[in-house]
Structure formats: structure tokens, C-alpha cells
Amino acid sequence: MDGRRRACVIGGQGALGRAAVDALRSAGWSVHPAGRRPDARDDFRLIDLQQPSSIGPALEDVGLVLSTVPDPGFAAERWVLEHGGLFVNCSHAPGAAAADLTAEIGDGCEGTVLLNGGLVPGVANLIAADLLDRHPEADTLGVAFTVLREGTAGRGGAEFVHSGLAARSRHQIIELPMPAPFGELRCIEIHESEDCGFAGVAGGRRVRNYLGFGDRRPAWTLQTANALGLMRLLPKVAFTAGSDRTGPPSQEPTAIWIGVKRGERLLGASTAECNGDYRVTALAARLFGEALVANPRPGCFNPEDLFDLGDLVSPLNEMGVRIAQSSR
Q1: In the predicted structure, residue 319 carries a pLDDT above the cut 90
Q2: 9 and 36 housed in the same domain
Q3: Looking at the structure, do residues 127 and 272 belong to the same domain, yes or no?
Q4: pLDDT(273) > 60
Q5: What is the longest distance spanned by two Cα atoms in the chain?
Q6: Does any domain span residue 247?
Q7: 62-95: b or e for each residue (b if 16 or more CB lie within 10 Å)?
Q8: Could you point out which of 38, 53, 75, 251 has its C-alpha 20 to 30 Å from the C-alpha of 187?
Q9: Is residue 215 situated within a structural domain?
Q10: pLDDT digits over 98-141, tens only?
Q11: In angstroms, rounded to a whole number, what is the distance separating the alpha carbons of residues 280 and 274?
């Protein structure tokens, strides 16, 4: 097969990586799953981001790389920037990382790298950029995301949720209007670094992130722990147990609320809904990757640097992502 239709998925042994492999194969790509653990699959490629010598042999003959792995050193991204190719990472990365990597490589940039190229951040960044274009006076960007126990959840995602909740003893709780079947949902603010995946699109504005737990028992437990100031004591195992389930990605109802405020006044909000967090994250990464194939541009970027929401509404609808302005 033409190398331009050959892809490699870093993290292909995890739950989100397996979903990304399936998403690419369903669109006719020849795909090599890749990871750091030995694997018996014939098409598997061994790659350890802590061992730079393993990166080139795994990536040099593919046209597109998707990664589900957060790597503070950006080893594979640096390799693509320096040697050429197209790369989409759909995990969370600091909003300033794209500009920093582009500046560091400088005139030697040969490849194209997209960070935060999934559903959240990713598609949510484009919705946020659209809202901020319409309300430039906003000083705060809020993003809330639903979580259901039935959803596919890899260990990395479960650890991210735990770390955000356990970072403080007590968090703010707000009630937000979510699409059916959630309705008015109490959402818990999670702590992230100031330079989160939305920092770039926020442009210096405050970013507040929330999780809305759609299952009654976990929601009640977390709200009680929060009221008692016990969030730092949440056991990690309660979130990671049962993660990395095998099988096709789930199609649980998923909703995202994005709103912009000035002070306490809500200026505008939008909601996105779909079925399956990991499933749609993988499809979104493929969408961004195929858009880069059609129009490559050397450098490292966030989604809002290269794409406008209006240009992607139709393909997002085809993926099952429905976006609507919210009443509040």
C-alpha cells in the first residue's frame, strides 16, 4: 500500500489507542499499532518514547502518526518535526507547547504536528474559539464534560480524572444544562495547571474545567466527599479499577458544555453531544489527521491554529457530533 495511506498509532495497546486503530482501519488506512510492551501482532511496532533510537524505525515509512500518549518530552513529535511527516496527538498537552516546539525547531521544521487533536481538548477548542470570536470581551472560559461508568476508560484517562479531583480538598460545584439524558447536571470543578490544553485558545483568560458524573451513586459520593473537604483522600484505585477493558469502544451518551463569561455574567454557551468519548476522540483524531494530509503545513499547532469550527461542522455531524448553542 502507498505509504501515504499507512499509519502508526502510538499507544496502540491501550483503550484509546485501540479505538484509534479501528477508526483508521475503517477509513481504509493500513495501520501499525505501536507501544513499548512486546506484542505478538504481525503489524505491531515497538516504540519506547524514553528510548529515542526506537522512534525513527517505527515511524519513517508511514504517512500519518496518531498518538494517544502524553509525553512531557514530546520525543516522537520532535522526530516528526525534524524529519517530516504528519502527527496528531489526541491526549492533553499544555497550550503553549505547540508554539514552544515550533520555535525550538525553527527553520528546520519539516513535518506537521497537531497537539490536543481529539474531542476534549480538540473539537471543544474549536467550539471555544468560535464563542470567543463572538464574545471577545469574555474573561473566563468554562468547559464541562460528562462521565459515565459504562464508558470506555483507559488507565491514563482514569488517572487524569483522579488527579484533577484529588488535587484539592474541596472544589466548586455548579449546575449546568446538558443535553438528554443528563438534563441539569451538577458538575465538579477539576484542578488543572494554568497552561492546560485550553490555554492557547483562551488567550490569557481564566480557564475553568468541570466534570459531570452521570451515574447517581458516584455523583452522590463525590459531592459528599467534596462537602466534607475529603477530596484529597480519594483512592486512585476507585478510578482505575476495570480500566483498559478490551472490546470495541463504548457508545455511552457524552456531552460537553462550553461557556464564556465576563465576571459572573454568561455571555454565550454551546453544547456538543455524541455517543462514546473514546470512540469519538479516535474519530476526531482521524478527522484532523486526514485534514492535515490534504493541507500539510510545517510546524506544531493546536486545533484552533489550523481549523475553524464552521469548516468542520459537516464532517463532525457525519461522525455523530451534534453542536448547538445553549440557552445558558
Answers
A1: yes
A2: yes
A3: yes
A4: yes
A5: 59
A6: yes
A7: bbbbbbbbbbeebbbbbbbbeeebbbbbbbbbbb
A8: 251
A9: yes
A10: 999 999 998 889 999 999 999 999 999 999 999 999 999 999 99
A11: 7
Kind and range of the H or E element at 49?
none
- Of all residues in the chain, what percent carry a pLDDT higher than 90? 80
Element (H, E) at 99: helix 97-105
Query: The domain spanning residue 205 has which CATH number?
Result: 3.30.360
- Asked if residue 192 lies in contact with residue 170, where contact means CB atoms within 8 angstroms, the answer is no
Find, among 152, 96, 95, the residue nearest to 121 by Cα: 95
For 34, 119, 127, 235, 298, the CA distances from 115, given in Å and listed in that order, are: 19, 12, 16, 30, 13
One domain, residues 257 and 283: no
**pTM of the entire predicted model:** 0.94
Mean pLDDT (whole number) for 11-17: 92
State mean pLDDT over 3-21.
91
**159 and 94 in a common domain:** no
Contacts of 298 (CB under 8 A, 6+ apart): 81, 109, 110, 111, 112
d(CA 119, CA 129): 14
For residue 328, is it within any domain? no
Answer whether residue 327 is part of any domain.
no
